[in-house]
Design brief:
Distance between the termini: 49 Å
Mean pLDDT: 96
Strand content: 15-25%
Radius of gyration: 23 Å
Structural class: alpha/beta
Helix content: 25-40%
Low-confidence stretches: none
Largest sheet: 7 strands, mixed
Number of helices: 13
Strand order of the largest sheet: 1-2-4-3-5-11-6
Number of strands: 11
């Protein structure tokens, strides 16, 4: 497909640079707040492309911002580059084959996410320069989306305060304007302290922190019956107290993820979970220390932006996958269950198409599937400014998120095509906003109408700092 649109031509002119950036980041998977090599790659590329670069954004050493242009409105393009633990995988292989190393992998496609976002920002920069149009574009390289809530910390510190519009995307099975539906989410740690003793000779002298954790878990499980059906609570043991059963465990810790449809619902659930922890401590005569690790807000929609992005996606048409792309996607689908594939179609509300390993169509804007909702720190950005998000097909339909199959597909030609495609959709939407003051005003009014009665308050307390990690070579 060859487009006459100037902005799309500008994307095509530099796509090879950003496909290579994506592949390099894929090859250096780094988890939350350890993305030192990945941010260095993004920083070098920003400088090579002529952006004015700000490092250490909001005091986070793995966050970066590049700006270009003068005057006019400010459009933010949001990128990410963090990986996940336990999803190491050889690229282009349709079977589990972990690579040697630390076991991390780009099982959510953030190597693509950051590279496509910067490609879009670069095309906008070049368009502003070529046309002499007033306006500024900013690329925000955001770490730690996977559980670290970096954008929430950045929003709390005012990193986005003077931006007019934010645009972003996420790799997906289907091409669509992303539905602005996510759950507010708090990650909270509960550390219980008791008293050690000989578990047989003097059990009456011990006070078990592990008992307290187990009682807390039981209490929360009973609470599940009495909370909204779309809320979610999950937990993971951080410290079970040791491996000696003949010692009463003096310390134990558990981390909870508490999710709800909106901030108010999440905060209410937080307090109920805290009371259960305090009750568990009371029952076991232990003490509990409660601390918030991170938190994110629910996404706010913006109808004018969603309509504008949908128009650009429809003008682009489906992603131009070829037979080789479809052949490998079919091999990936062979590793999946029928439920995996049916579940993916149900999520977007589209009838299943037989013999369709890759999405060769565009999901209509107002089609609504079954809600299968996670959380994202893009939610906090959407409370600060009007925000829109695209999904672009980069992997086989049915591929579960956070899986080795996502990692395997992250360097394939199909993924690169999705990267370039969505950069065009984002860049064209930004150009529409810069050129059309009415569209910009409508987007801002929609946003103001949504937050007018409930202004944004960051869900992370002011005394909580991001859990920054040292460089490996400095540890």
């Amino acid at each position: 497909m060859k487009n006459s649109e100037t902005i799309w031509d500008l994307v095509d002119a530099k796509k090879a640079i950003f496909e290579a950036l994506s592949d390099r980041v894929w090859g250096m998977p780094e988890i939350a707040y350890t993305e030192y090599r990945s941010v260095a790659e993004h920083t070098v590329t920003l400088k090579q492309q002529g952006f004015r670069v700000t490092e250490n954004v909001a005091g986070i050493p793995t966050a970066v911002m590049g700006e270009a242009g003068e005057g006019g409105p400010v459009i933010a393009i949001l990128g990410e580059y963090d990986a996940l633990p336990g999803l190491s995988q050889e690229a282009g292989v349709a079977e589990p084959r972990p690579l040697p190393g630390d076991g991390h992998g780009h099982g959510c496609g953030h190597n693509l996410l950051g590279s496509a976002a910067m490609l879009a920002a670069t095309a906008i920069k070049d368009w502003l320069a070529e046309t002499g149009t007033p306006g500024r574009v900013r690329y925000y390289g955001c770490p730690a989306e996977e559980g670290g809530a970096a954008k929430s910390f950045m929003a709390r510190e005012g990193a986005f305060n003077n931006v007019d519009i934010a645009i972003t995307w996420h790799p997906a099975s289907f091409t669509e304007v992303a539905r602005a539906h996510s759950l507010a989410n708090t990650r909270m740690d509960f550390k219980f302290t008791g008293r050690a003793s000989h578990a047989s000779a003097a059990p009456h002298l011990g006070r078990s922190a592990l008992d307290a954790v187990e009682l807390m878990n039981v209490g929360v499980n009973y609470m599940r019956e009495h909370m909204p059906s779309d809320a979610r609570i999950h937990y993971a043991m951080l410290d079970s107290g040791g491996i000696a059963p003949n010692v009463v465990q003096a310390a134990a810790a558990v981390r909870y993820a508490i999710r709800a449809r909106d901030l108010a619902g999440m905060l209410a659930l937080n307090e109920r979970v805290k009371k259960i922890a305090e009750g568990a401590a009371l029952m076991t005569e232990t003490k509990v220390a409660i601390s918030i690790m991170s938190a994110v807000s629910n996404l706010l929609p913006n109808r004018p932006l969603e309509e504008a992005m949908q128009r650009n996606i429809e003008r682009l048409g489906p992603i131009p996958f070829d037979d080789a792309d479809r052949a490998f996607a079919a091999k990936i689908q062979a590793t999946l269950s029928e439920n995996d594939i049916n579940n993916d179609y149900a999520r977007v509300g589209v009838v299943r198409k037989p013999d369709t390993p890759l999405c060769d169509f565009i999901v209509p804007l107002d089609v609504r599937g079954e809600p299968m909702v996670g959380s994202t720190d893009v939610g906090d950005v959407s409370w600060v400014m009007p925000t829109v998000q695209a999904h672009a097909a980069t992997h086989a339909i049915g591929t579960p998120g956070h899986s080795w199959q996502i990692t395997s597909q992250g360097k394939m030609a199909a993924a690169h095509k999705g990267l370039v495609y969505v950069a065009k959709a984002m860049a064209a939407t930004a150009v529409d906003l810069i050129n059309d003051e009415t569209l910009m005003a409508r987007a801002k009014k929609d946003h103001q109408d949504r937050i007018g009665k409930t202004p944004y308050v960051c869900p992370i307390p002011t005394d909580v700092r991001p859990p920054l990690q040292p460089r490996r070579d400095a540890a």
